Amino acid sequence: MAHFPIIIDFRKISGHSQIVDALSKSFDAVPNDTVHFTINLNTYSMLYSDHLVLIGSTVNHLRNIGVTVTGNFDDFRSASGQVRYASRVNFFEQIGFAYEEAYVRQNTSGRFTEIKKFDDDSALDIHKEIVTILLKDAINEDMMTVLEYCLWEVIDNTIRHSRSDGTVYNGYGYISCQYFPNKKQVRIIIADNGQGIHKALTTHPNSKYKLLNEVEALDQSVDKGVTNSTGMGFGLWATATLIRENGGKLIIHSGNHSLEIDNNKSVTNTSKWQGAYTYIRVNTDVSVTYDKIFDNDGQKNAFEELKENLLGNLDDLW
C-alpha cells in the first residue's frame, strides 16, 4: 500500500494548472492506497469555486475507486472570507469535511451555483440553473442562447463519453458557475475523472480518429465535425468559436495535455489530469451573435430546436 501526500496552498496558486500540478500524483493511487490532503485556503486574491471543483472531483474519484482519503486544513481560519466562501459553494460538503456555518445563507440570486455533481438525471436542472445566472443581468438573450447551447454540449459530452466501459449517457461530473458583475465575467467549469478525450475519441469501434495520439486528439477535439461517431462533433467547435469571438478563455485539460484558446490556440504538455475538465470564461459585455457560430440555416435550425427542447420559453424560467 502506497501513501501519497498532496499539498495545496492557495497562496501559491493563480490558475487551474497549478492545482492539477498538486493533484497529479494522486491519480497514481490504486485501491487500498492512502492519499492525504493538506489544504491551505488562504489566498492573496480570490478563491474561485472552479478551482475547488478540481479538488472535490479528485477526492470523490479516489474514494470511488477504493483509495483511503484523509486530510487536514493548514492555518484554518473558520471565520475568514475564504472559508465562508468554500462552505457556501458546498466545497466542504463535497469532500466530506464537517464545518458548522455560523452565518445565515443568502439565496444565490442568480449569481452563482454551488458545486454540484451531475449525471443524466440531473443535468437538465443544473443547466437551467446556470442559464438563470446568464439571463439575470449578465448576458443579453442573443449571447445567452449561443452560450447555453455550448454549455449543454459540454455537459452532454461528459455524460455521454466519460465512462470507459462502452456505455453512453452513464457518465457524471462536477460543475460550478459564477457571475462576477464588477469584472463583467462568467466563469464555468465542468470536470470529470473518466477516460479522457483521447480514449473517448479513439477507442469507439466506428471512430475515424483511432490513430491520433493524445496531443492530436485534444487539438482536433475543437475542430468542426470531429466525433467518435456518436455525435455531430459540433459542440466543442462552437464553444471554441464563441470564445474567440467573445475574447474570453477556454481550457480543456485531459491526460497530460492542456488546450487553451483565447486569441490564440495552444496545446501544452502538463501534469496529468485523470479524465477531462473544461473551463469557460466569457465576457458579459461582448456579445456574439448567431451568425458568428452558425454558418448555414441547417445548423441554426438544429440549434433552435435544441434550445426549444431544453428550455422552452425562456420566460418560464422566472
From TrEMBL:
UniProt domain Histidine kinase/HSP90-like ATPase: residue ranges: 147-255
Name of the protein in its database record: Histidine kinase/HSP90-like ATPase domain-containing protein
Gene3D superfamilies assigned: Histidine kinase-like ATPase, C-terminal domain
Organism: Urechidicola croceus
Domain of life: Bacteria
Pfam families according to UniProt: HATPase_c
InterPro entries, per the entry: HATPase_C_sf, HATPase_dom
